[in-house]
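Q: What would this chain look like folded?
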Amino acid sequence: MGKEKGKTILIVEDSPYLAESLVDMLNISGYTAIVAPTGREGVAMAIEQKPDLVLLDIRLPDIDGYEVYRRIRDDKWGAKANIIVLTASESTDVISKNIDLPADHVLFKPEWSVKDLLERIDQAVK
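A: My prediction, written as structure tokens:
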């Protein structure tokens, strides 16, 4: 894991505990992790910093992850941005109706494992 040293991952997650855990996991694996605790901050950071990957929660305190996704995709850089959705509350059907992501770019909390998430991140940022 962590073969892609120097790659930046933006975590858009309002749970400080989960965000901190993800940062630690990514840093240990050789990635640089940055966090946006709200949807608006996530959009701004994504467009400004152009990370190699965005880990996006759907339930956020201001605008939801679907809107974050749309706003990122509306940007020239964001149209091709790597995005993986992490969600505890949405079904695959609901997600697929709202955003156009491959099924392997959606992980359900708490069912995903650290190993699975890192494998998907490694594949996405190749």
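Residues 60 and 90 are 13 Å apart (CA to CA).
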